[in-house]
Design a protein that fits this description.
single chain; 278 residues; alpha/beta; Purple Acid Phosphatase, chain A, domain 2; six-stranded mixed β-sheet; five-stranded mixed β-sheet; 13 strands; globular
Length: 278
């Protein structure tokens, strides 16, 4: 399976900018890049913060751009999104029986489980008892079929060492962990967003990863205690190649405009060429 992961598009109404950047122009370039080089992808997953303020106009603009995407699309919502307005603009995106933007996709590599960590009125993530019960049932169903699991969510259920971001990560992480841990050996990877940073590692023995956002990033500052510092480091999307033996994740800086060249063009490297001869 080839899966494209991108996150935190932070759309605003068309014609407006965010922190001086244009989220629509950046995503248009990402869509064009994916269509050109990864039209064969099985799925594109966007892990939340689809908009910045949750306006209908922002969701409408986002829908226009994503309508041009060739591979199948799966959307999650984040703390900047409005669940009802999202549903109005993306009626084909699945919800669970309680109205949360949660679903399970059965694929050749296992069950992909998409979670909703949004709670209106806060930027922190929440996963209430109702959602925990839903996830527990889906994990049990995957176990009954002896299927591997891949989790997708907006907020990370752990700290990343950056205090201003950690304050608005998933709240009550221990209750979430209690649902997940009985199935830890079945969960092959957890993909998440929210942090606007390239990050990989493991949580409770589960491999995890995230990546830079589409419009703006969170600067890597371990000394920050107050507000989050932003930057315009380049956006990226990830290409995950999944089979029964491995999960390989490439991060692609699709807007990089540095010179591209063949490493085989010169049989003598620059260092050797520059050395004085006896």
């Amino acid at each position: 399976m080839k899966l494209i992961h991108l996150t935190d598009t932070h759309f605003v109404p068309r014609g407006r900018t965010l922190y001086g950047g244009d989220p629509r122009a950046t995503l248009e370039r990402a869509v064009a890049d994916i269509n050109r080089d990864h039209a064969d992808a099985d799925l594109v997953v966007v892990t939340g913060d689809l908009t910045h303020w949750g306006e209908a106009e922002a969701f409408a603009s986002l829908a226009e751009v994503l309508d041009g995407l060739t591979p199948r699309l799966q959307l999650l919502i984040g703390n900047h999104d409005d669940r009802d307005i999202f549903a109005a603009h993306f009626p084909d995106q699945p919800h669970d029986e309680n109205g949360f933007v949660q679903s399970v996709m059965q694929t050749t590599v296992g069950h992909l489980i998409f979670l909703d960590t949004n709670l209106a009125g806060t930027h922190a993530g929440w996963f209430c008892e109702t959602r925990r019960a839903w996830l527990s049932a889906k994990l049990e169903a995957a176990a009954a079929l002896d299927q591997p699991v891949f989790l997708f969510m907006h907020h990370p259920p752990f700290s990343i060492g950056l205090q201003p971001i950690d304050r608005i990560s998933l709240q009550e992480p221990d209750t979430f962990a209690a649902v997940v841990m009985p199935h830890r050996d079945r969960i092959r990877h957890l993909f998440f967003g929210h942090i606007h940073r390239p990050l990989c590692g493991s949580w409770q023995g589960i491999p995890v990863s995230s990546l830079r956002a589409m419009n703006h990033q969170c600067w890597l500052d371990f000394n920050a205690r107050g507000s989050i510092s932003g930057s315009f480091e380049p956006p990226a999307y990830a290409v995950a190649l999944i089979d029964p033996q491995q999960v390989i994740i490439h991060t692609h800086d699709f807007m990089d405009d540095s010179a591209k060249f063949s490493l085989a063009d010169s049989p003598i490297d620059d260092w050797a060429r520059a050395r004085p001869h006896p």
